[in-house]
Amino acid sequence: MKASSSVLSILSMFLLLSISLAASDSAFDNFLQCLPKHSHLSNPIADAIYTPNNSYFQSLYQLRANNLRILSSATSKPLAILTALHESHAQATVVCAKLHGLQIRIRSGGHDYEGLSYTSDVPFVILDLFNLRSIQIDMTSETAWVQAGATTGELYYQIAEKSKVHGFPSGVCTTLGIGGHFSGGGYGPLMRKYGLSIDNVIDAQLIDANGRILNRKTMGEDVFWAIRGGGGTSFGIILSWKIKLVRVPAKVTVFNVQRTLDQGATDLAYRWQQVAPKLPKDLFLRLEPAPITGTVNGNKTIQVSFIGHFLGQTGRLIQLMNANFPELGLQQSDCKEMSWVESTLFWAGFPNGTSIDILLDTVQDDRVFYKTKSDYYKKVIPKEGLETLWKVLMDIEDIFIQLNPYGGRMEEISESETAFAHRAGNLFKVQYTVLWSESDGGIGAAERYIEMSRRLYSAMAPYASSNPREAFLNYRDLDIGSNESNNTDFAVAKVYGAKYFKNNFLRLANVKAMVDPDNFFKNEQSIPPLPMPSH
Question: What is the pLDDT of residues 9-66, one digit of tens each?
Fold first, then answer.
């Protein structure tokens, strides 16, 4: 009897699965038939549709899947990839996916640290925006319209083509897609002078859940507030941003001074925390500790890099450093003067003398497996805390850490000005990235490396922000809380929402209820509609 009931149970499960797959196939067929009906005849959508039957599908899927940890562990692939060649293709994708019950994942550069722009556990399609990459710069108004599929590198290159004394505050990595990068905040070496990318955005184009293209005026100030720091993919599809360019000098100065523990790195790192957030706005000084093998006895040690960017020339920089951080002992020989656009290559890690044409490379070649976490620090880490950090770094070895100073413009902007809430009161933000390659075990080693990242995160808990322990949306981390692919539980979302958005979360949920009440746009860490109060 037991055997027959278990057979019946298995058959029932198989039948349900078959019905589900058949329904999914039917929905997908209807979706494909729907697309041409909702896109412009002058811009046929057929050329933008790639299904698994297409020989380019697999390479297209992988090309902008930045994290090999996610790519190698994905259990399901999209039913199709739509490489929108025209805005109407993105509109049609929204209308037809909603009509036929498919989920959309939106990808502009593929740098989502947890791969939410190209994976899901339910039937889904990827809307790939890399073809929508135009950049239109108007030097008269010092503004530009930048489409979501353009990269940070392309933006820097095109600004430099127009002007030697303009730039834009944005990320260090040059292959970031503008759509996602800006919507989470967007920061880089100009943040202490000019704030984040979103602090210099003055308009946007957004496709809503009904497939309409809205601008700042038609979406309204609440939605425009939300997409600047709240992550665009909860509210719609960012098509483009209008940005205000910023002024930079014809020459900027950069440096990278390195000190080991034997050279007083701990004392210098301790002092950096007190100095870096209070330096003049024109000076950004990042700290990067890394485990290395000592040159004398071959033992492990820590080397701390003090990486600086100054909107000015060497002479003035030396004066400022001698007045504010003489302990570092910055010398003229440590400094390199260059144009602002050349400094973007310095920050991206390209060798000195590299042609700026490399900014036009839109796909990252050297992909690895990685897991990233983030923290905000409101108090100086004591020296014993730094020593704890050094020890864990030497234990892990395969790790990349950045401490990015706040202060300057970042503390002048209210935390409610945009959805990005991490403003005054922070000394610095930290990124912890554990990374490995195929030779280190590939996907089979993921569990071990993820555990290492959690151990480091736990070790720094006594010193980081708390209640909530804040996190940066663009360094997405599912460890801090996540929902299922197709179900956004509000109680769960409140947990990660408080960490990413602090007190702005409830306003974001309220905006979501206004613009997407049916929660069409969702992922594992999206913002749900604010529930209606029960009577």
Answer: 554 444 444 444 455 679 999 999 999 999 888 999 999 999 999 999 999 999 999 9
Structure tokens at 302: 């820590």
| pLDDT tens readout for residues 294-327 | 777 778 999 999 999 999 999 999 999 999 999 9
Give the number of other Cβ atoms within 10 Å of residue 365's Cβ: 6
Q: Are 337 and 318 in contact (CB under 8 A)?
A: no
- At 305 the three-state DSSP class reads strand
Q: Name the amino acid, one letter, at 463.
A: Y
For residue 228, give every residue at least 6 positions away whose Cβ sits within 8 Å of its Cβ, in sequence order, or none: 182, 183, 198, 201, 418, 419, 420
Query: Phi and psi (nearest 5°) for 87?
Result: -60, -35
CA-to-CA distance for 61 and 491, rounded, in angstroms? Answer: 33
Closest CA to 358 of 342, 369, 335, 339: 342
Give 469's contacts (C-beta < 8 A, 6+ positions apart): 375, 461, 480, 499
Q: Does the predicted model carry a pTM greater than 0.90?
A: yes
CA distance 181 to 179: 6
Q: If DSSP states are collapsed to H, E and C, what string results for 450-506?
A: HHHHHHHHHHCCCCCCCCCCCCCCCCCCHHHCCCECCECCHHHHHHHHHHHHHHHHH
Alpha carbons within 13 angstroms on the beta-carbon side of residue 404 total 23
Q: Which residues are catalytic?
A: 475
Q: Are 251 and 209 in contact (CB under 8 A)?
A: no
Dist CA 171 CA 474 (whole Å):
11
Relative orientation angle of helices 490-501 and 505-515, to the nearest 10 degrees? 120
Per-residue buried b or exposed e for 313-339, using 16+ beta carbons within 10 Å of the residue's own CB: ebeebbebbeebbeebebeeebbebeb
